[in-house]
Design a protein that fits this description.
The structure is a homodimer of 876-residue chains. Helix content of chain A is 46%, strand content 18%. Chain A contains 36 helices and 31 strands.
């Protein structure tokens, strides 16, 4: 296989599909050259394979030879030679990886100039100023990128010269001054490093190596980690004949989009600079003109550009962005690619392009082009600017941005919100006692905990922005500090719950108003999924259930009953039940809980009338309903406990467990306290009865948590049967189990003899499969593991595709062998994560259940997963 | 299929192999009748299948008809008819299940008598006394067993009669008195129930139903639970013509063994009663004579009996026990079976029978006949009597019996032992702080915790008797109470660590001295296992390693390094390491630990020279080396902490975890504190160096605990590599991993790319597969689950054959696909459990590792598992 391909090489496949080999830039340059016949300066691409070999073993054998041949070919095409003292060929050397990594790797322009060829360029162009301007640019770039020198002295030299001449723009410096600048640069390089290489072949090899190396640069590595791009792809290198936007005032350079990437509006959009090279546009030093201004100054090039835009959109069937240069009135295209866009624009364009006969996007393709991030952007406010000073970083736990004043305590947060303040609640971690403060806040920031910590789960449930585990923040009584920065209670901060960024002060936010196309595209997504995989919501209250239904949930996949027990008016009753010393006391407490739960369930069943509601019987260990043991012990040791508290202490000791995650909870609690579970089932059936009487259509699914054996599930089934026998409700009731212990997954065939449905509780399944207590490992251990590559990703964010998904697949298959048509779902946090959803759909589940605000994302992700199986490619 | 078979039915297979159908008693009666031609009173067997149908659906269709035919056949054979007023046939009705359940189910004798036939019997036998004695026996039995009446008034009637007549033996009562007794019984039955049935067919059906029902009697259920006999087998019923040991003084009844079941000595052994029925022998009211006394009284029957014994041994190729009756000088055999024996006798007979040409037992058969309980009996002292009053029951956690005075506190236990007292340490549960007290005690009793609790594991390690989780015992400051019984510190108790029984006072104990045959049989077991599966020991000290080697361990499968850290002289250094505030302090502490660990490892490697020693790097979370958090918090709240303790409090808080089992331990700790792990590896290599220098042959296996991913294991491997590079030890070093998370088992293919061996840590694997924290569920939950049949057995005692063994098998197969010949072992408590060993051998492991005292059991169990695959049947 060759290591180098010219842009006009006759590939057997469309070059645009060869990004893995040629990089994105190289593939599109070849596409424009060889397929579309657009005016692209000739050049060639050194493949990503060459880079991979270089990074592994050093400069590839044979690359010198291929490079010589490629340069010779280019020289023949251009009628000029690299380094020719009379009429030199100049080239650009640019990186271009498979996935776009804008600004992350390096570029060298004007390569081929040296002390002699610069004179030839001056003569040929009759423009000494231009020639020396090009040379000083090349020298500065080469020094910085290839030689790795500090750019500052070079920049200062240029500034000094401008000051000396009293000019503002680089272009206004006269040729003499530029010549002097080149001389000073030459000396600088000798001083800082060694002789500036005069041999253009040596320059070229140096530049190619620099681009190769830049793949492993710090910025590039960080970018890839953030974007999930593999580290072993390498970059291609594009060597291209230079055209000069800085040639004169009949020249210029610009970037353009075939539609507005912010709004999705049709019509060209972009920026242009007369007499400039691309780096000037990027640097933002000079003020650019809008593309429309081209029409007056370069009428012919403008017409041609419009034609190119139209052809590119038709060819790529998508919005493209384009880099171009005009050299003395002639248009040259330097790059194109399918352009990045905002969520709003993505939705709008996707719908428009299905209606545009020239593009004729199918609905499936339209759905495939929308990313989860696009939806997040239109669902939640965002930072309106990316130009923010990051104070701290945590885990983005619940998307959306929020601005507010810091409060460190839930009560004070509630009080401040009552006064009309906007509040960010900042806590080490949150517990059920903080819930009111969290509700009152615009956003939540914690310094500990992970993506399934209490703060994260609750915030996602409410669609409220949250950053968790921002461990560089140290909280004290009056505020917090990050390094030397001190933030007091009452100070303004801004958080971005998608990226985990924390910013001091008030960052302006965009509004969150999904455009009309939002429902159109998600409707198409639902069509793709119809009858195959549905999306339900995790919801514990009527309000959540209503919201979930509005977001398109087709049922409740997980209604946790413990949150109902934690309501301030319920908790005392629950404690009465725990402290009961006689069956009568216990029954009295259970009767009070029955009435409360009946109300809770009624509201949820009403909101989801016609759709199934899966109610999980009480799951957590009883001590979660008691005050913290350590506080009680301390009170006891200090002699400050009331009689009531002393009774609570004894109960807390009795129910204390070494490893509550693996202790008496779920169905185990039901076995020890069957009255509690039967009460829940009776309350649920009574509520269903109420709803049916009122004309609703309740569909009830009772879910038994934490099962490990068939006999245990059968035992639990009897609670439901007994309650059913006493009930007169005309409702559909199914009984199933959560699969959340590895054993349940491995004995799924036995469980399916009893269970009418399975729902994978992948949080607990992950905890037990890895032996990871999320509370304990997400703080220090998980970041260390991820940073050292000991795990590919956080298994609490994206489900482990190797072991946990294997259990899901094995259990689904085994269950369906025994009970064909067994309904299988996933509840738990992974149900809202697109990468996890892809795994689950692959494993054959019937539904996923996500928190209400994640339902749209899940609907999209389900469609993507199904399309992927059909090979409808996602957004380029 | 028939529901009834006569004893002389021509079965296609040897009847003795039809126990599942005919029950043990019926099968052997048929064998003696139809194969051996021995004198057995004719009769027939109602099958276990009939019983199963009865228990499921009620009286089986067709059974009446078959029963009529069988009775008619018997009547023809005997020339008498059931209930005939002139010359009645009498029968016995006896239970007989597949597995022997002595005394657990019911028997009715003399059935067929009624008010008229008793007169016929009297006339035929010319013995009115005999006839009415038989009738009163039958009525009392029938009332108790078939009618379910209280036996007490019947017994009182008999006693009153004897008092009235001033006689001691039932047989001395005259006929008139017996006739009056019968009349009074008749009235009693009318009073307590209804008319006594006169129809012999109704009597028979009632008796058969009673036997069927007795399968589900309370005693029988409890017995089966204890012995692990399935509940759904049912019992057969044997109906047999009566012969009368109580006919006259030329009659009698007895039981005998073909060898001494206590010692294994050759020669007959048994008891005999003149003029008695079997129930008299069992009841123990009259003093029996030894079998040898028969020779003088019944010379002919005695010779015949000797001949029968010899034939039975040759036929069954084993020691048999026999029930027989002599009726007017003629010998009848009522039952035979392979006899139960003590451990000592079992070993002795097994070896003798290989040398006896008439039996010609193979070594494999000899090994197959020894049970783990036999070995336990000769390895540990036992209660010398089974006649003990049980005070409480717990889990038998470490076999052997012990007697001592109760001490509730480790220090007081040590002091008492110092004074020469024998001590039983009684604690709620034990912790490392109790270890010295445990060492000083004869035995250990805890009221909480399960079979893998600290107390259980440590006691088994030392071979010291222990009963754990005796939850009816309530400890207070001065002693403990069970219900109304109060036991003070200093009082004597006795415990049986095999059965879990706790007895008040001093029970006499047998000595524990394995006979010479012990080593012979285990040597044969090793021959069977040679080159296939070996047995190693779990040992943490040189002493343990030496002991393990003496017990036949071929290596150490698990050397835990944390116990070394808990030694009183080490703990302060470990705490210094944890509290270190600078790298220097930490290194200083590590250097001190290095020296200590080097010594530890040297002793172990010396003791196991030539065999592999698998050292597990530090596994537990760091807070295990700190004082209890709650105590520190209480001290802090009460203001009583020293500065040092306050620093420990802060550390305990920092390292505190919600679920330590799933937290930062094992390799995870190593990732966060690599210095600790490298220190351990260096100490191990240095020790190996020392041992090799001294002429020993150290074989070192380094085991990484709690791995979940290949990258993590690779990371850990580097610690070993670095240490190896710095070492000059000429030793074999292999690096492997524990498989103790479900994920490790599911990604075993990846792990095998790095690991040179696998060792399944089935304790943790069980905890995570079930989601069972052993500390938390073994107290209340596990007994409830077992009692309700929600689990088949305690998965911490016998490995879960369904899910956990599936993981073991899948991982073993996957690992060997990647690395053929991968060595796979099991460490952890299951490695000493025979039923678990059978599973592991089936899954293909290369070795199991057990605590030193369990090594002989494991050697036997391994041989059994391998023989089972070859279908060499275990002891009958």
């Amino acid at each position: 296989m060759s290591l180098i391909y010219a842009f006009d090489h006759a590939h057997p496949r469309a070059p645009k599909d060869l990004k893995a080999l040629l990089g994105g830039k190289g593939a599109n340059l070849a596409e424009m050259t060889s397929v579309l016949g657009l005016p692209v300066p000739p050049g060639f691409t050194i493949t990503t394979e060459a880079c991979r070999v270089y990074l592994r073993e050093g400069w590839p054998a044979g690359l010198d030879h291929e490079l010589d041949e490629a340069v010779a070919g280019l020289e023949r095409r251009m009628g000029r030679r690299l380094g020719d003292p009379e009429d030199p060929l100049l080239v650009s050397v640019r990186s271009g990886a498979q996935f776009s990594m804008p600004g992350m790797m390096d570029t060298v322009l004007n390569l081929g100039l040296n002390d002699r060829s610069v004179e030839g360029l001056a003569r040929q162009t009759h423009d000494e100023r231009f020639a020396y301007d090009s040379y000083r640019r090349f020298m500065a770039m080469y020094a910085r990128i290839v030689l790795g020198l500090d750019p500052e002295p070079f920049e200062r030299g240029l500034q000094d010269a401008k000051v000396r001449h009293g000019v503002e723009n680089d272009g206004e410096l006269p040729a003499d001054e530029l010549r002097a600048l080149v001389a000073s640069y030459r000396e600088l390089i000798v001083e800082l490093w060694a002789t500036f290489p005069q041999d253009p072949r040596a320059q070229l090899r140096g530049a190619v190596e620099a681009v190769f190396r830049s793949w492993n640069g710090e910025r590039a590595r960080a970018y890839r980690e953030r974007e999930g791009i593999p580290d072993d792809l390498g970059t291609a290198v594009n060597v291209q004949a230079m055209v000069f936007g800085n040639r004169d005032d009949r020249s210029g350079t610009g970037v353009g989009f075939t539609r507005d990437p912010a709004t999705g509006d049709q019509g060209i959009y972009g920026d242009f600079l007369v007499n400039a090279q691309g780096e000037d546009v990027v640097a933002g030093i000079r003020i650019t003109e809008p593309l429309s201004a081209l029409e007056a100054q370069f009428p012919e090039a403008f017409r041609e550009l419009l034609d190119v835009f139209a052809r590119l959109e038709r060819h790529y069937r998508d919005m493209c962005d384009v880099e171009f240069t005009i050299e003395q009135g002639k248009l040259w295209l330097l790059q194109t690619r399918v352009g990045k866009r905002t969520g709003r624009a993505a939705l709008r364009m996707a719908v428009q392009m299905t209606q545009d006969p020239a593009i004729a996007l199918t609905k499936e393709e339209a759905v495939a082009r929308i990313t989860p991030e696009h939806l997040d952007q239109v669902l939640h406010p965002q930072f309106a600017t990316s130009d923010v000073a990051v104070l701290a970083r945590g885990l983005g736990a619940s998307p959306g941005a929020a601005v507010g004043r810091v409060y460190l305590d839930a009560e004070r947060a509630v009080a401040a919100a009552g006064r009309g303040e906007e509040v960010i609640l900042v806590r080490k971690e949150t517990s059920p006692e903080d819930v009111r403060g969290m509700l009152a806040a615009q956003g939540i920031l914690t310094t500990r905990g992970g993506l399934v910590s209490h703060a994260a789960v609750v915030a996602r449930g409410w669609g409220k922005p949250a950053v968790v585990g921002a461990s560089t923040i140290e909280i004290d009584e009056r505020g917090f500090r990050v390094g030397d920065t001190v933030v007091h209670e009452g100070d303004w901060i801004s958080i971005d719950g998608a990226t985990g960024v924390v910013v001091l002060g008030q960052v302006p936010l965009t509004a969150s108003e999904p455009p009309g196309e939002f429902d159109t595209v998600l409707g198409w997504a639902d069509e793709i999924a119809l009858g195959r995989v549905s999306v339900r919501a995790n919801a514990d209250t009527a309000l959540d259930a209503q919201r979930a239904r509005r977001f398109g949930a087709r049922g409740i996949g997980l209604c946790r009953t413990e949150h109902m027990f934690l309501e301030p008016d319920r908790l005392p009753i629950v404690r009465r039940m725990i402290l009961a010393t006689s069956p009568e006391e216990e029954e009295e407490a259970l009767a009070a809980l029955f009435a409360a739960q009946r109300d809770d369930f009624r509201g949820i069943l009403e909101a989801m009338s016609g759709f199934p509601v899966t109610v999980r019987l009480l799951d957590p260990p009883l001590h979660e309903f008691l005050p913290d043991l350590v506080s009680l012990e301390r009170g006891d040791a200090a002699g400050t406990l009331s009689d009531e508290e002393h009774r609570l202490l004894l109960a807390a000791r009795q129910w204390h467990e070494q490893n509550p995650m693996l202790g008496v909870r779920g169905v185990r609690l039901g076995v020890l306290k069957p009255g509690l579970y039967t009460m829940q089932v009776r309350a649920l059936l009574a509520a269903a009865h109420d709803v049916a009487d009122a004309g609703g259509e309740p569909i009830v699914e009772v879910m038994i948590p934490l099962t490990v054996s068939r006999a245990e599930l059968w035992h639990a089934l009897q609670w439901v049967r007994e309650a059913l026998e006493q009930s007169t409700a005309r409702v559909e009731v199914r009984v199933g189990t959560m699969i959340e212990t590895p054993r349940a997954a491995l004995v799924a065939d036995e469980l399916a003899e009893v269970a009418e449905f399975f729902s994978f509780g992948t949080n607990d399944l992950t905890q037990m499969t890895f032996g990871f207590s999320r509370d304990d490992v997400e703080g220090t251990l998980m970041p260390t593991y991820l940073a050292n590559g000991l795990l590919e990703s956080n298994p609490f964010k994206t489900v482990d595709g190797k072991a946990v998904v294997t259990l899901v697949r094995l259990a689904t298959e085994a269950g369906r062998r025994i009970r064909p048509g067994l309904k299988v779902g996933v509840c738990g946090e992974h149900g809202g994560d697109p990468a996890s959803i892809r795994h689950f759909v692959g494993a054959g589940v019937d539904y996923v259940s996500a928190s209400p605000f994640r339902v749209p994302i899940a609907r999209l992700a389900v469609a993507h997963a199904l399309l992927r199986a059909k090979d409808v490619s996602e957004t380029a």
